[in-house]
Specification:
Layout: E1 2-10, E2 23-30, E3 33-39, E4 48-53, H1 55-58, E5 70-75
Amino acid sequence: MLRARVVGSVWSTKRLPEIPSGAFLEVEVEPGTRLIAFDVLGTGIGELVLVSTGSVAAGWFSGQTPPIDALIIGSIDEPTSHE
């Protein structure tokens, strides 16, 4: 599992029918290292997220497994300062 920040959206006018509703987002795992992750949670740019990769990500889908190997599985609450 990876901790990443959502840095952008990826737009696609065509997609495979086995890919469910959701968005492809660009996430930055560490400075300079980015990947595209599928999002079913509705996270937004700037949010800190948990990303599952590989067969674990693909296994989340039921039916015919789509060719997705990075899945946003959670949103990380950022600490707030208490003054």
